[in-house]
């Protein structure tokens, strides 16, 4: 197999926004408790935060973290999670049928955010609560004068206002599973009024309205249109969520998941443009892809507890990822970069233990999933401007998406280098890739992540048998760069 990509530094898509490399921490399973927070762990810091997890979050290059949900937020009373620990109520979490101790709340999250050097993206509850509670939380977090709520925060030990800029107006409000699920009309009005009230406190906030929970929702498209009708001038983003998994052993379709993401993102962008045109607005609303990942939702052991069983921080959604999953995560990142003109914020869902790149053993070690590697490569090396990347590739037939390019790739350039991120979707054949870059290439280094067994998975006792390695086939030939990409592989080609 052979394929070519052609780029030119004058043909650009958009600058790479650091917000594309966000993640998500929800009060779900062991994401918070025994994930980022475990006071009993011998190596936790003075606030009970796992230092190994903080180090990994930094190493992964995470920019923003969405918190506290997710479905959880739609039943959350933020007041439960602030103030003296002994007075915090224990509550039922209706979203995941668990018990929430409220030991970890807003101030713990903000302290963790500061220690992990991430920007918070706070979600307000618009499922079971409303405008006033959202404004109260905003005032509690960001209030700089002496109001009751700002002083309450000070009395809880946080003297300085947090200055949180990014706020999500609820979560997946079109989903019948959501506590306080709404119609587009109901949600659109509530989101618009909440946005206006929050902006009355601080006009510089960046607000995210809920889009559809996924592109398979029966109201997908109409939901975005109706919600934006109400909110267009008052929000900066509309959310999009998308998860993928291999169905019935169909690896070919699974490896092509980015084709679906491309189509989804382009549909949402088209709907935004339709509303903008109809409103004759100058303003641009962007996409916040604030939940995306591989997630094996159909697995039986993914079931949430039932009946009288309301456990505290049980194991939930602890998917263990293969190399093939990591290759798909890499191609989803390529799709995100390719659409960096319309996606300006994205969050890998989630960060620790729950469908996550970082895993922890309670009281024990932290280990890295296969999906850690492509994410880290992109967050560290996608700097500068995304280039229009012309792909000429053989195709293969998939059950889900028809004929699909075997190669998926995108190129990013800055003053010191051009970096190509590339996936070979072939299951059996290596690919000879030729890169024809418009810029003068002085040298080339390539890194490849692949395994003879694409279903190899990392685990607590071994997360290092399969690691990204130098791809020694990378070379300059005339004006081109050539690299051989193994089957089912994730690749990074750096050209200073
Ligand atoms: O990320 C897991 C769940 O997926 C989130 O709580 C919800 O928003 C989505 O359906």
Account of the protein in words:
- GO terms for molecular function: alpha-L-arabinofuranosidase activity.
- It comes from Scrofimicrobium canadense.
- Residues 290-489 form the Alpha-L-arabinofuranosidase C-terminal domain.
- The chain has helices at residues 51-60, 106-116, 131-142, 148-155, 184-201, 222-231, 251-255, 257-279, 323-338, 372-381; strands at 2-7, 12-15, 22-24, 64-67, 91-93, 98-100, 119-124, 166-169, 206-209, 237-244, 286-294, 343-348, 358-360, 366-368, 385-387, 390-392, 395-398, 402-405, 407-413, 418-424, 431-437, 445-449, 469-470, 475-477, 480-485, 489-495.
- It is globular.
- With 496 residues, the protein is an alpha/beta fold.
- It has two domains: 17-381, Glycosidases (TIM Barrel), CATH 3.20.20; 390-495, Immunoglobulin-like.
- It has ten helices and 26 strands.
- The model has no long low-confidence stretch (mean pLDDT 97).
- Strands 3-4-7-8-9-10-11-12 form an eight-stranded parallel barrel, surrounded by six helices. A seven-stranded antiparallel beta sheet has the order 2-15-19-20-26-22-23, with helices on one face. The chain has a five-stranded mixed beta sheet with strand order 16-1-21-25-24, with no helix packed on it.
- The site of alpha-L-arabinofuranose has 10 residues, from loops.
Classified by CATH, the class of the largest domain is Alpha Beta
Average pLDDT number: 97
Low-confidence stretches: none
Number of domains: 2
CATH homology superfamily of the largest domain:
Glycosidases
Helix content: 10-25%
Beta-strand content bin: 25-35%
Arrangement of strands in the largest sheet = 3-4-7-8-9-10-11-12
Number of strands: 26
Principal-axes geometry comes out as: globular
CATH topology of the largest domain: TIM Barrel
Major beta-sheet overview: 8 strands, parallel, barrel
Radius of gyration: 23 Å
Q: Give the N-to-C terminal Cα separation.
A: 26 Å
Alpha-beta content class: alpha/beta
CATH architecture of the largest domain: Alpha-Beta Barrel
* Small-molecule components bound: alpha-L-arabinofuranose
GO molecular function, one term: alpha-L-arabinofuranosidase activity
InterPro entries: Alpha-L-AF_C, ASD1_cat, GH, Glyco_hydro_b
Subunit structure: Homohexamer; trimer of dimers.
Pfam families: Alpha-L-AF_C (PF06964), ASD1_dom (PF22848)
